[in-house]
Automatic annotation (TrEMBL):
Pfam families: CS. GO terms for cellular component: cytosol; nucleus; protein folding chaperone complex. GO terms for molecular function: Hsp90 protein binding; protein-folding chaperone binding. GO terms for biological process: chaperone-mediated protein complex assembly; protein folding. Residues 2-91 form the CS domain. Keywords: Chaperone, Cytoplasm, Nucleus. This is Co-chaperone protein p23. The keyword Chaperone applies. Its main location: cytoplasm. Belongs to the p23/wos2 family.
């Protein structure tokens, strides 16, 4: 049986930030399709459990321009939107989001604050982590 990892999200006009909180993740597999279907799975050594996500994002995305970084405490995804427009929610399905999915208030930015230049991944040096194209990857 698999579990859902705690996942945070935030957006900008042209991208979505997803942070999957799964320390020391192993066997990371991810798949992103242009229609916004997103799959993730990994194993957590701490409890030897399999974790999975299967999300239908609100709208189409650009797989080629999207990136992921596997860090020691989390997996960070930068998903490029196919069209530069604000989404009313992360998931296509209306209604209450799943309990494991939360807004990342540290990265959140309202449409009105778009030009302020704060709230993203900050000064993180992603070059020290393994980068992956989101089309279909196994670590």
């Amino acid at each position: 049986m698999s579990r859902h990892p705690s996942t945070k999200w935030a957006q900008r006009l042209d991208k979505v930030y997803l942070t999957i909180e799964l320390p020391d993740a192993k066997d990371v597999k991810l798949n992103l399709r242009p229609d916004g279907h997103f799959n993730f799975s990994a194993k957590a050594p701490a409890d030897d459990m399999q974790y999975e996500l299967d999300l239908e994002l609100f709208d189409a995305v650009s797989v080629e321009e999207s990136q992921a970084a596997v860090a020691p405490r989390a997996i960070c995804y930068l998903v490029k939107k196919a069209e530069g427009k604000w989404w009313p929610r992360l998931l296509k399905k209306e209604g209450r989001p799943p309990v494991f999915l939360k807004v990342d208030w540290d990265k959140w930015q309202d449409e009105d604050d778009e030009d302020a230049g704060f709230g993203d991944f900050g000064d993180m040096d992603f070059s020290v982590w393994a980068w992956y194209n989101l089309s279909s990857v196994t670590k």
